[in-house]
Write a structure and sequence with these properties.
Blueprint: E1 4-7, E2 14-17, H1 27-40, E3 42-45, H2 52-60, E4 65-66, E5 73-74, E6 77-84, E7 109-116, E8 124-128, H3 129-134, H4 138-144, E9 148-151, H5 153-156, H6 159-162, H7 166-178, E10 182-185, E11 187-189, E12 196-198, E13 205-208, H8 213-227, E14 233-236, E15 243-247, E16 251-255, E17 265-271
Parallel strand pairs: 2-3
Antiparallel strand pairs: 1-2, 3-15, 4-17, 5-6, 6-17, 7-15, 7-17, 8-14, 8-16, 9-10, 9-13, 11-12
Amino acid sequence: MAVEFTRLTPAIGAVVSGIDLARPADGDLVHALRQALALHQVLFFRNQALSPVAQRQFAARFGDLHVHPIYPQHPEAREIMVLDTNAFDLKDNAIWHTDVTFIDTPPLGAVLAAYQLPAQGGDTLWASGFAAYDALSARLKTLLEGLTAQHDFTKTFPLKRYGTTPEDRQRWEETRKANPPVSHPVVRTHPESGRRALFVNEGFTTEINELPEEESRALLAFLFAHQSRPEFSVRWRWQPGDVAFWDNRSTIHYAVDDYRPQRRVMHRATILGDRPF
Ligand code: SIN
């Protein structure tokens, strides 16, 4: 069956048909998906039957996998992070964020598979950092040029939410020590397409290094509001068997927290990227 890409919005997102993600991906397919990811930024696949081991195998075709320091790991594949509302408080994903920007080489992307879904709700939104950057005025683009911002693990993972037992507290302390705040450019260049994307996110970005505190706060508040405009985004209503594959270098995303007390379980494989420039 031929692989087809159907755009979802002008700015971001495409549904991909004609691929069984559980089958080993050959070099041509990996190349095609890399190009599609750089173009559409988030790809959606329907009717997949992806075990944690097969999900790890598919994601690993795109790079080394990240093991999250806080979230639980799947017993069959430690690189698969389990987002289970019965096991863990997931409010931290109900904020516009880009995954794991608190490390020097933030992820290239992530593969998210729906394992158990609520009857209603639990949608995920993605927004395009390319579209957000393109829509800025030339004057503001010039101002942002060369600015860097700090990204801090503790902004989304504060001790008060992740340190309830002595073991949790120790793990949190060790993770904080291993992950001091890092700086990334406020606007990054996509290494494959060369497009420029806004690269701050409300989840982890704390301040712009080159500005006084008040100016940094005001500019970040504007950029956070600007980058999540509906015009730059796509909203995905999950069905059983759905998989999303997003480019973490050019997007932010938001997991809508509107379904409790229903349970929602997702499996994520996170692919490491390179140093933003
Ligand atoms: C995430 O933020 O990586 C998870 C998104 C989701 O659960 O929909």
